[in-house]
Amino acid sequence: MSKLSVNSLFDIQVFVLLYESLNATAVSQTLGVPSSKISRSLKSLRHSLNAPLFIRKQQGFEASDLANDIYPKMKRIVELAKHCEKIEVGTDNLRTRKLVIACPPTLSLNLLNHLQARACEDQESFLFHIKPCTSNVAELIKQQHVDIAVTYSAYNTEQLTSSLIATSSNYVLVAKQGHPLLSRQQSLELDDIFDYPYISFSGNELNDVIDPLECYALDVERKLKLVVKVCFLADLMLQLEQSDAIALLSHLDAVEFLCQRGNIGALKLERSLCESINQRSGRYHYYLTQMRKNTASPSWVGKEIHRYIQANITSDSEGYNEEIK
């Protein structure tokens, strides 16, 4: 075992990740290194221990008995190393702590400023890294590559916990300036919306999130003139400006972004119209997801994200459709 002195913490981290995923390609992508470097690390460990750690199979790897025995200890080494990174030695040498937050882009437009202001108020030093949510966000949290995330699904498992932040119950119609629906004097009806081409905007990269209006149309067997699906505001802006298509949003910051930077107008839909769309259970749900034992971020971070997103979701609109200036 004395030969282990030639192995690095990186080698141990490679072993832990491969043991957990049994997929060398996934480990390579997670660590952001070439597959050849993963192979060299495994070879180095195998040479030091003088025994095989993994058995290559057609569909991946299978852990050996030795790997099963040493995994808990290797995992502990990695955890201790990460813990040491977070230790603060005196207030004079306070380090800037990095906090990785995964969040749909349309919900995070002003989230960074919000968190920075709160950290400054508490005289805490953070380097906030806000990145989009991806389909493997749960694995990224478990592997400690993401500290906290805003997700469209709940992840209540042995390791992860999710709390409901908000449900989008109200919508804002966006279209290019001068669109007939924006200047309509009467209250909008579903028939009016179905008369125009529709752009489905999810604001995320996930494939399992269904657009509420699309869900409604499928349920009542009504034809929706769906022309394109986009997940970036810049794409949505261009599509709206170049056509008579419309879209429905539920994020106030996203609506403000489009109206300020593009030739876009917005109209908040009447509550009864929103309820008609939502009765088919197509509404979005937003959850705050993190490790059950989250030591990476102070409790105020989750509370501030919760508060910010609740304020960013469109609220109930009384009376008739209301134009947003």
TrEMBL record:
Entry keyword annotation includes DNA-binding: yes
GO terms for MF: DNA binding; DNA-binding transcription factor activity
Record flagged with keyword Zinc: no
Keywords, in A-Z order: DNA-binding, Transcription, Transcription regulation
Domain HTH lysR-type span(s) in chain numbering: 11-64
InterPro entries, per the entry: LysR-type_TF, LysR_HTH_N, LysR_subst-bd, WH-like_DNA-bd_sf, WH_DNA-bd_sf
UniProt family annotation: Belongs to the LysR transcriptional regulatory family.
UniProt name for this protein: Transcriptional regulator, LysR family
Source organism: Shewanella pealeana (strain ATCC 700345 / ANG-SQ1)
Species classification: Bacteria, Pseudomonadati, Pseudomonadota, Gammaproteobacteria, Alteromonadales
